[in-house]
């Protein structure tokens, strides 16, 4: 009986603390998820800003103007990511242990739950879809521009490049041995559906593959496109 009473007493003391730790762990996971998402977002934004800055030196005034608008939009996206990160930190109200047993239960912060599940303000076109046997879209986004393009039309155009991109990768494997990895492709869809400014980030692959993929995307045509829109795709090559 004394043993049972002691056990019940210990449970009465430790249960609130365990509940508190559960809430803290939830906040830690929410914070980690949010920081990871914003790090990915800011890294992508920084890459796109670098590309836009390169286009600022183009001889075509329209290209320079579009690049300037892109930079302004991307700076706004960076500010939004910063604000979301700040909200993550504010929502994480857990504290380091003081060495004393805390017996009150902390309710998980609603703001932490929100920032952990927020998809952000970026417009996603598609994700996790195969273009061919060795070409897989990890994520495709519209990142800039004031033009109008139906998502379905953009997907059709991108999927139309799948065979050509697969041939680019096959040629790379023949000359450099098999290697899998991802590349980041950014491109602009202009009035009438012409694709311009196709750029491929290095991603560990050689210049020939990057040039080949750029050519594949540059040959794409998007039906029903009006104005100018900028897109960014992460593509997995290989198994």
Molecular structure report:
By secondary structure, the protein is α+β, with helices and mostly antiparallel strands. It folds into 2 domains: about 1-115; about 125-235, no CATH class. About 55% of the residues lie in helices and about 20% in strands. The chain has 6 helices and 5 strands, in the order H-H-H-E-E-H-H-E-E-H-E. Helix 1 (about 1-55) packs antiparallel against helix 2 (about 60-90) and helix 5 (about 160-175) packs antiparallel against helix 6 (about 205-220). Residues about 100-120 have low confidence and may be disordered.
Quick synopsis:
The chain is an alpha+beta fold and 239 residues long. It folds into two domains: 2-117; 123-237, no CATH class. 54% of the residues lie in helices and 19% in strands.
In round numbers, the mean pLDDT is 80
**End-to-end C-alpha gap:** 63 Å
Q: Please, how many helices?
A: 6
- List the secondary-structure elements in sequence, H or E: HHHEEHHEEHE
- Radius of gyration, CA atoms, in whole angstroms: 24 Å
Please give the share of residues in helix. 40-55%
The neighbouring-strand order within the major sheet is: 1-2-5-3-4
Number of domains: 2
Please mark out the parts with pLDDT under 50 across 5 or more consecutive residues, or reply none.
Answer: 101-121
Task: Name the structural class.
Answer: alpha+beta
Tally the beta strands: 5
Q: Beta-strand level of the residues, as a percent range?
A: 15-25%
Tell me about the largest β-sheet.
5 strands, antiparallel
The shape is globular
